[in-house]
User: Fold these one by one.
Assistant:
Number 1:
Amino acid sequence: MSNSAQANVTRESRLALQPISVVEHGDAFLVGDPARSAFFAVPEVGVVALRALQSGARIADAETAAEAYAGQHVDVLDFAEVLVAAGLVESVDGRPIALDSASADATGGFIEGVRPELVRPFFSRPAWCLYALLLAACLIAFARRPELRPTFEAIFFLADPAASVVAGAVIGLLLGVCHEACHWLAARASGVGARFSVSRRLFLPVLETDLSQLWAVPRSQRWSPFLAGMAFDTVVLGAALGVRLAWNEGLIDPPPLAVRLAGAVVLLQVIALAFQTLVFLRTDLYAVLVTALGCFNLYRVSALVLRRRLRVLRPAEAAELAAAHPRDRRVANWFAALSLLGVAAAAWMFVVWFVPATVITAGWLFASLGGAPLGSTSFWQALALGSVAGLQAIVPLVIFTRERLRG
Amino acid sequence: MIARLRLFVPPLLIVACLAVLWKAPVRNVRPRDAPGRPVAVLPSPHIPVIGAHHPPYNSVPPTSGPHVPQTVAPGVYTQPLAEEIQVHVLEHGHVLIQYGAGLPPGQLSELRTVARRHPRDVVLAPYPPIDRGVALTSWGRVARLTTADERQIEAFIAAFAGRYVHGWTG
């Protein structure tokens, strides 16, 4: 049974609300429960009604206050039912409202554990200037020193190519974990928590940090958590590129393996940063874009706009699109086209690169397993290589299946 | 805050200026003027693993022929590379500089300096089949030097690095 169905809300009712955050976002306000990351946008008059309800006023009285502010009729009863349905109401006229299981599940998993003041220096204005300058220096170095640009061979940094692939996958995973951890640390610097998961973007497995609690803080405090992962990538790229440059200039003479490892790290971080530009895959820069444009749910609205253009929009989706914020609908007009281009490019990449690479890897794997004596070094190397390649192909499939099963 | 910010600016400006001022060396050595001799290119299929049976190579070190699907990144290696990997390295347009165990440390240091100058083009590794001296290989080309002659090596790299990448490039 849904929350709203079990509550009997009338114009005479008084609501006891959960702790609710109200944050200005463009020309609207984001209202929600940071603990559950449940937010929705309301106009300013909604905030007036909410404040009245929070003060213990009857719904009818809140409606009077809202109408006095807006100068026209405001349906606060409908608004109250939305609050109940969103799980933002503890009780109606003293009768407690139980959260449904989905809402209850959503309350967990947000990790805090680090005091904000400890991590703030890493996300201060001077620190961001440093990260930006470092990124600029890396780009200049790539532009002026072509020999420092990474090639895909760089991943084979060990004399044993199979060991290189396995080591590269492990290093990439560790760097990915650190990237996500930096999102979390920057969120802590802004005073909110985050939670982690494994997800997918089309056919690519990704680690993901849920930063939805950021909707409860002012927009100026969201940039840093969104960009923190890329800042980490930039610092690692700068360090690895610095090693390559200094070695190239004869300033240092580290062990050869360290130089080649730095080359592999440069490649991994360039890929990681380039991936973030694919905003249609809801990357970090997508979050930045949404925040900069003052949008709310651009990805979903763009998908709906696309479905409408393709004439496959269902009635419920049409209603959802009609209820979307006007700015989301406006931006979605071009973002949907960008997404379509991006998905087409990804489909091309899937056909031209991913499928052949998988087939070739599988071919190597079976040839190696068939040609190498059972239990030999070559046999185990092939098995390790196959495991890495297999995991990268299977994880998105598993996540896709899980998403379908959950509806 | 501005004062703190200033602390970060000089080192980054130095890095940026170094990057801007550097210019890539000009490659103007013609293949016929470069050291070494051409070697007939063999059929060069993939073989499943290092050590799998295949027809013999026609030079020491090899310059074409059967090879494994994997390769290695350009750079300096302190362990020998299997010949089946060497050929794949050459197939990607790189130059292999290999040396015998008897090469004096000073000359090895010079080879490392050359490899450092060409981080995308050169693979440097020991090669036990030659006792002394240096072997330079590219796709279909080999040169044997008695010493680490930097001028000869640079000429070889200038002439052949990137000349063949799964096909002749020019």
Note: Confidence is low (pLDDT under 50) at residues 1-10, 15-26 of chain B.
Number 2:
Amino acid sequence: MRETAAQQFLRDAAVKSADLVHREIIRNGIASYDAAHLRGRARFRDWEAAREKCREIKQEAINHLDKYLLQFEEKVLARGGHVFWAATAEEACKYVTGVAQRLGVRTVVKSKSMVTEEIHLSPALEKIGIKAWETDLGEFIVQLRNEPPYHIVTPAMHLNRAQIADLFHEKLGERIPGNDPTKLVALARRKLRESFFSAEMGISGANFLIADSGVIAISTNEGNGRLCTSVPRIHVVVTGIEKVLPRLEDLALFWPVLATSGTGQPITTYSTLIGGPRQAGEADGPDEFHVVLVDNGRSRLLADAEQREVLHCIRCGACLNTCPVYRNVGGHTYGTTYQGPIGSVLTPHLAGLKQYQHLSYASSLCGACTSVCPVKIDLHHHLLHNRRNAVSRGGSKSGERIMFRLWRSSMLHPRIFVLMGALGRSLLRTLYGMGLAGSIVDPMRAWNRYRAPVPLPTESFRSRWRKGLVG
Amino acid sequence: MSAKNPSREQILERIRTGLRTPAALRGGPKSAVIFEPIRNPLERFQQECAANLMECTLTADTASSASQLAKILDSLPAGEVFLQDDPSLRRLIEVARTQRPLRWSGEGAPREISEATVSLAEALIAQTGSILVTAECGGRGASIVAPCHIVYAHTSQLVPDLETALGNLFRSGKLARNSFACVISGSSRTADIEKILVQGAHGPRRLAVILETRA
């Protein structure tokens, strides 16, 4: 039988959380992020006011999404660009592959875009014989490993320099002495330069769509996004319909907030605005400019008033970095395009609640994600909403339902409660006495498998209460 | 258009239908000051440039700007220089007396072999130590293709913060006339390998601002 997404999650979580090299890499990476994030927040006079303002602006944008998307579209068309609205992933891929075929594209350079990962654009291009190169260094590394991104902001954070040097040696045929990061970057730069200047099409995402100006905003540090959108003769933007901001001036807040939450920087190196193909009198730029607005489940999420604010997400990755589950099981365990708390909330809406409801349980509900979210999405409560929705749609297992029924009836009948407690204690005592704690017959296996058994009380709370030992 | 793109109306309709059920509006504390006001834009700009690993040299007049440009060009390997075709830069390069091959933006995009690009800026942003360029500043490639980008600007172009810079860009109609604009805050960089900062990922390793004092 084919493994379900939930079984895969449990299997990979067990493997990853026991992988000490992986744990060390993630611990170091996130410790350096934590320090930068705190320093970044301190640059704001009032970080909480910034979060509140961002939330208000996104709320306004999403509550008038149709109006702002039309405003954006009108301005792009006026500059000679094209706008395509894609209801599904397939439709978006079909449009992009169609443009590529019509214009004789053989090679594509891509800058980082999670929406293109979501719709599986690269495999669709490869299917028609077009090579698509990822040009963000982290994305390039995971592409060479034939892996999806590990993290929505830092796709190769699960690898150390030695592993990357080995990969480059194997795939690019050059050995970097001492695994020097500067030389590794220089090697990738050299290899990718050839692609930038030979590709006919550049594909990018968009961090924001600005309604009043009809421009897309892209934040990058490496400059690969700049080259992808400047050098090839065609530029295609693939982005979600929820990325809208009403006004250009909103970026004066969103650029610093995104950079602070994403990497701890005051602002990313290149905060770029693009609104069309090369205009008359401009020295360079693509001849064609296409924006693909992807729905792919977003309008369904919009219709859910309780969870609508999930569309406020600006994909900064802060909730992944702070999540105690993500920090231990790592990004690939989720088996989804978007990982961590936001991925666990969003994926059931985009890819199906039945298949991905287990992700809502990959959380201790500690609320750390909610506390760092720069647009104040109430993430951990949305995980609870997903759990409730899954159960009310019959998503719970029959064994689980029976156990809850038993628990309910024992809570309602004190005698049964006492009896169950006594039986439970004596069963566990016998098992532990036989050295079977954590074994397959231990009902507490999930806990006891990797830990010393929880000590059993000699008597019940009720009997201690009666003797006056409690209180 | 809708004949070619039937999903357009369908998506808009789904959005409109979805929004008919209002979400509970959450309100929080209002109108607090988010960023510290900037008291001395020049000083702040210089500080932020240093933090962004940019070079910023303050010059007194065109002659000293030209000599600073010559100094930077002398420090680079032999090769072509791409320049925004603007009278002020033609004057500057003439005074700088470089022997390098020059390519002007009127001739098209910078070539991949360019050793440096020289452009003007639309504004300088003190808050983040950034330069704002548009397609008019020599095109898109002028600030990304070569290993070194040199910006010739004046102190009168300093604005305190991003809000002012973006507001001016919008209200002046500049953004509507250009297909491209970029707020550049340092050299190209990456920290994708073990979070170690490496400069010169895909774009310039070096970003130098020649800042001429002008009221």
Note: The two ends of chain A are 53 Å apart (CA to CA).
